Amino acid sequence: MMKLVYTAIALAIGMGFAVQTSINANLAKGLGSSLVAALTSFGVGFAMLSVLALVTGQLQAVSGFKHLPAWVWFSGGILGAFIVFFSLFLVPRIGVAALAAFIIAGQLTAAALIDHFGFLGVPVHELHVWRVVGLVLLFAGALLVRMT
């Protein structure tokens, strides 16, 4: 039962990405700046997460950060900023469907390499022929979405 719930949540996140990207693209168009729209999105997200962390009492977890290397502190936020900014930049140029298709193909390619080599401390799941075939088909699908 929980697998079904988790799958539904993951599907909702994917749908939310398309909706969020579209909303933020409208924000960028209205503001005349993808960068300011991304900044606004991150600012609102920061405020929302701050309230949630405060309400749930999870701000105590901050003490654990002092033992982490600096790159762990900053890399996720930096990558997130680039992802949001370039998503806003690309939506009016290639569309939400093509953007999502290439993002998914890119995510799965990176995920397969991370799994195969055990990067970033994840357990090794070797790359085999069916994963490669799946990745090739995903990329081909993304190209087809972009061509239409």
Automatic annotation (TrEMBL):
Cross-referenced InterPro entries: YdcZ
Write out the GO cellular component annotations: plasma membrane
Identify the Pfam families for this entry.
DMT_YdcZ
Residue ranges annotated as transmembrane are: 34-56, 68-90, 96-117, 129-147
Q: Which UniProt keywords apply?
A: Membrane, Transmembrane, Transmembrane helix
Organism superkingdom? Bacteria
User: Could you identify this protein by its name?
Assistant: DMT family transporter
Question: Organism source for this protein?
Answer: Terrihabitans soli
